[in-house]
Amino acid sequence: MIYSFNGIVPVVHVSAFVHPQAAVTGNVIIGRNVYVGPGAAIRGDWGQIVIEDNCNVQENCTVHMFPGTTVRLREMAHIGHGAIIHGATIGRNVLVGMNTVIMDRVEVGDESIIGALSFIKADEVIPPRSLVVGNPHKIIRQVSDEMLAWKTEGTHIYMQMPADLHRTLQPCEPLREVPADRTVQQPSYQTWAERKADR
Questions:
Q1: Among residues 82, 79, 81, 83, which one has the least CA distance to residue 112?
Q2: pTM of the predicted model, to two decimals?
């Protein structure tokens, strides 16, 4: 669902994938290999939203702002399910955890990881490579090289999704019973806890 607003039409790179059940409105620029999941609302009605190459904005996220603001998700920003980004700048290769809320004029430094359910109040500046958790947020330590590599690996999976979806996603009728030869997806990525346990 792509909508112009006040004569401004969103720009979506041909390699990006915006799910038909997402809503993208107005002054929005979406770069290469971006994934936007179903239920996401990206509202460039009162200001501009720039989503740089290789980002993902997952299911039921909201990206919006107060009037006259630019929201920017820098390259490889990874916005988890249900997160709200309101008037903030998210740095390069940042992970924003599920159901996190990041408020106006926040600047999240590159390569930071924001834990699920965190709240970052307006005007905060999060230094690069910060590991942030809680409501209200706390910076608990620096992101290690190992943790950043884990985050980056997960984002690479999402970077492949637009091409896969363009190639294979199609409406269908459901089956009425499970076929004997049904495909089972093999694990291709570990949670952080699994990764640590295997060390």
A1: 79
A2: 0.94
